[in-house]
Amino acid sequence: MKSNLCNPEKYPNLAKINWPADLRQLDKSELEAVCSELRAFLIESTSQCGGHFAAGLGTVELTVVLHYLFNTPTDKIVWDVGHQAYPHKVLTGRKEELVSIRQTDGLHPFPSRFESEYDCFGVGHSSTSISAALGMAVAAKARGDERRFVAVIGDGAMTAGMAFEALNHAADLDANLTVILNDNDMSISENVGGLNNYLAKVLSGKFYSSVKEGGKKVLQNMPTISEWAHRVEEHMKGMVLPGTLFEELGFNYIGPIDGHNIPTLLTTIENIKALKGPQLLHVVTRKGKGFEPAEKDPIKYHAVPVFNPQDKELPIVKKKLTYSNIFGKWLCDMASKDEHLMGITPAMREGSDLIAFSRQFPERYFDVGIAEQHAVTLAAGMACEGAKPVCAIYGSFLQRGYDQLIHDVALQNLDVLFAIDRGGLVGGDGATHHGSFDLSYLRCIPNMVIMTPSDEKECRLMLSTGYEYEGPAAVRYPRGAGTGIDAGESLDTIEIGRGIVRRSGEKVAILVFGSLLQTAALVADEINATLVDMRFVKPLDEDLILTLAESHEKLVTIEENAIAGGAGSSVAEFLSSKKVAMPVFHLGLPDRFVEHGDPSDLLSRCGLDKAGILASINK
User: Fold this and answer.
1) H/E element, 460
2) Which entry of 201, 388, 400, 476 is annotated as an active-site residue?
3) Active site residue: 287, 349, 364, 479, which one?
């Protein structure tokens, strides 16, 4: 889908820029106007299609300067936390397609190697940019290639251990790597100003670099004086610059500088280009820059629906309660009953709806940042001391803590409940965020209890069941609203490992794991099939499966998870172990990465809508 939003009358400078090469034809004095138009274009286009908003507005000047100074795509810019890359997409041949972003068959929501040669590394999760750019730089260095590699990492992404692992390794390799820390935390805005900008220019300049290196050579045979000089240098920099940590890791630290000041960005980054080895530039930006409501509330404007920028307020859309809301309410209710409950999230307070819990029980609320591995092992440690940790985490994010889930929780059979949000297809965020694999990777782990609620009431019952179970348990639920059924306020539990026959029929038994039960019910009614809400992926209701196998000609399993190794596979494995030979058909996500788009479109393409399920069964 293309638009004609970028017309020359409204955007005279931006309309002439289709590629970074066009941008580089401009005089430096023209870049301010380009940034102004680019920011206005982002506001206009994103308001018409929805999407990530505040982060991209904060990286406009940085993106323009990087593409202006570096010879992209020969030089490589690796983005982290990909929602800050909308300005990058606009400058790299995709401005007229921006209104299609996150929509079915539209632009990818994040940088994608399959979409553009300017997207040199795909990203959806965070904290990968430094490792990836370092790998590129090392490979280039081995060929004698002098290209430049730049990693742009958001401040939130620096909370993940992987970023520091990469920083630690980069110094040993002495590759030509530039890391730009895009710091959009308003708490350090007072550090930005003329003095810091001046210091950054000095520290990035050739004179300072040569004096620093020359001084080292002069003093290297005078260890006492050399050590004293180094300590004085670090002390002086430590007083005015927060870069001592990065210097100790082996980076030449520069900054912080104003990430919206184009002359400062141009001078500093131009100086950095002339330096060899690992460099770290600290820029301070403002989320939502140029759109006042987003500047005031960047969390609210992180991702937006279609809205009117003139209203200065997002539209109020009445929605049914989501599964996340059901979890958030349950968590507060259970915490009121049990003082041992601890709530943990890896930087997903809003997404997993821990807002009320964080306010009502601040001493029992733990946001660990983008650090899924730490979140899981933190929960394990809490359980060792008798606490009852509940780890709220997206299914695709739990993949990053898989080793900890196995070794630190399950192996020790610790009492941790995982509330796994975003199970199945999530829509516009695409393959990096779909919960496509969690049932497969969870069910192979010993000691785990795995539940898949079919509606909101079942979700609440299963959360209580998993919480009361003494051992590792997971409740896996989808994104968005469910059936609209009242979940109630009960903290009752259900019997572990027991499914429910929701409808009795003939010949075909449809075994459903999770929220596709309502769609499967329509199919069951049409073909007079037995409909079963399996509830538990592990342990399976083995007695029920054997009964169904005896009374039906074929079984059909349905799940919003990869077919390979999923819940359906467990049914077939069980029947095989009992030497029961009968047709078992598995419906689920195909053996490919499902792209972004409207959830209903995606389910249809995967054959998981009513028509697709019916066609598969009839075939």
Assistant:
1) helix 456-468
2) 400
3) 287
Distance CA 279, CA 260 (A): 20
- Residue 305 predicted with pLDDT over 90: no
* Strand 473-476 with 449-451, pairing: parallel
Q: Output the DSSP codes for 114-136.
A: TT-TT--S--SSSS-HHHHHHHH
**Residue 539: other Cβ atoms inside 10 A:** 14
For residue 422, indicate whether it is catalytic: no
Return the structure tokens found at 194.
């003329």
Q: Is 400 a catalytic residue?
A: yes
Percentages of the chain per state (helix, strand, coil), in multiples of 5: 45, 15, 35
Q: Of the listed 76, 201, 364, 372, which one is catalytic? A: 372
What percentage of the chain exceeds 70 in pLDDT?
Answer: 90
In this structure, what are the phi and psi dihedrals at residue 514, rounded to the nearest 5 degrees?
A: 110, -155
pLDDT tens digits for 222-245? 445 555 455 545 444 444 455 677
pTM assigned to the model:
0.87
The pLDDT value given to residue 535:
98
The interaxial angle of helices 194-204 and 206-219, nearest 10 deg, is 60
Check residue 1 and give its pLDDT: 65
Judge whether residue 175 has pLDDT over 90: no
Q: CA torsion, points 226, 232, 236, 237, in degrees to nearest 10?
A: 30
CB crowding 447-486: b at 16 or more within 10 Å, else e: ebbbbbbbbbbbbbbbbbbbbbeebbbbbbbbbbebeeee
DSSP assignment string, 479-518? SSB-S-----S------TT--EEEE--SSEEEEEESTTHH
Residue 363 bears catalytic tag:
no
Given a contact cutoff of 8 angstroms between Cβ atoms, the answer to whether 445 and 469 are in contact is no
